Amino acid sequence: MSAATPAEDATKAIEPQAVPCYYEQETVDEKCADKVIPATKLNTSTTDLDCDGQEPTEEELATLPRVSGPIDWAIYTISFAELCERFSYYGSAVLYTNFVNRPLPEGSTTGASHGTTSSTPGALGMGTKAAQAISLINQFWAYLMPLFGAWLADSKLGRYKVIHIAIAVCTVAHVILTVAATPKVIVHSDRAFACFFIGMFVLCCGTGLFKANISPLLAEQNRDTRMRVEVRDGKRVIVDPAITNSRIFLYFYFAINIGAVSGQISMVWVEKYVGFWLAFLLPTALFLTCPVVLWSQKKNYILAPPTGSVFSKFVKMMMYVMRKSESMLKPNWDLVRPSKIAVASRPAWMTYDDAWVDEVRRGLVACKVFLFLPVFQLAYDQMTGNLTTQAGTMELHGVPNDIIQNLNPISIVVMIPLFDHLLYPGLRKVGIQFTPIKRMATGFIFASASMVGAAVMQHYIYLKSPCGKYANNDGCDPAPINVWAQSLPYILIGISEIFTSVTSFEYAYSKAPENMRSLVMSVNLFMRAFSAAVGQAFTPLSGDPLLVWNYIVISIIAFVGGVTFWICFRKLDGEEDKWNLIERSKYMGETEPEANTSHQAGILAEETAKKV
């Protein structure tokens, strides 16, 4: 074979080379696929190449505006299923405080207060501390169960099947709750409480299975996986999947709160005028539309298959890197990269690729961020227990005390379109990248402010109540303060949720390895369970005369938590693009037919080389 001459080499070097202009799930955009880019321009800005779909250069990342990609119709159908589930869950959970706290109104066998001398529905009469404890237990189990739901979906059944199992479990739970509130059972408080607690626990199990998987299923419908440059309205922009995901989760949260406010408002009126049994039964009807919607749209969904024992592989990898590294606090990730280990020396379980190691590192970074969420959640948890009780000590003017908390989801429903169309685009237009870490830190401050508002309100209730600092005593007339004065804490909590809770969902999905998305999302949700457990420590403050101190302490904790959160993760905030642009792993799990191919091929090649 003759060697090429220098002239031939030079000619070959400048021959045009075909370069794919668009990356999306390893496909090439049709309008760009036939473009040929000279080798002399391979490192040139895409502005000069006039080719949409290329990944942006560092210069373009710093200078071009960023926009969202399209949102697929399938995303809206999954959001509707979540709306139905939230109607079911919140339509029931909103009843728990009155059901446990207040006694059965005199002459009532359903718990309804209409037509009785009582202004508030009730059933068990166990008091404010018991009601707050039940609220926290409900919160704890509902957000502990996603860990199991994530494992079941990622390893065994897949997200779609687990969601349908969750729907069946929740339906059984609603039947049990309805039985607890029937006239023949509710008059026997011990039996009613036992039946109620079982129903609540079963509903938490179903909710956990559902929550761990519905948001990853939703985000998987976003077909944009990498940044790309496009021309829109004559201007070059970067289509950023992170912004697309942000919009997806904003409207997902919009659907959550439409379901929540619909369920809560309608059920508290049913509770007041008919009774608890119908209020527990009705949410089931809308919830049963979930499987109908999901079945009808299944052919349009991207459904990731279960991946086998990926979690066990993750555990083995973590144990290996901790054992081999000099410091457990700063693990050397090169020690678990297959490319850095001789094939014959590689453990049999090390069948992933190098990119999966980076994805796991990124997922662990997200989990570190989630460690601060219980601090934020402490403020949110006051809404479903103590603030509902607070409303019961104010002038209701015919409004059920547990309807006021609907100001929270209403404020979210109003604010989300404003955030999506005005606030976030406006900040991007003036060059401010309001990244996830900045948004979450801002949410902590709003949560703290909401608790300041609650503390001030509680102070004036004690000041004006006929019973002074014992405003929750049975038979005590309400303080002469209109219940709608409670609006500020609920609205501020709603704003804080948009900044922190919505962003945490987006962060969990975008930073998780593709085959561990349900698991990382469940870790995010588990932080809410941990918050409920921590909240039990504040139960002694959840009664008269200490409620003012309860709100003040939680406000201080939320503020300090937000400041500490920013100090800890401000460096990570500047690395957002770096983590979003890491190489995608091709390793999917043990159920992937080619999962072990590279490992086995490497061993075979090395053995062949030795023989030669």
UniProtKB/TrEMBL annotation:
One of its GO terms (cellular component) is plasma membrane. Keywords: Membrane, Transmembrane, Transmembrane helix, Transport. Pfam families: PTR2. It is a multi-pass membrane protein. It is found in: Membrane. The chain crosses the membrane at residues 133-153, 159-180, 192-210, 248-269, 276-295, 443-463, 483-507, 519-541, 547-569. One of its GO terms (molecular function) is dipeptide transmembrane transporter activity. Its main location: membrane. Belongs to the major facilitator superfamily. Proton-dependent oligopeptide transporter (POT/PTR) (TC 2.A.17) family. This is Putative peptide transporter ptr2. It comes from Ceratocystis fimbriata f. sp. platani. The gene is ptr2_1.
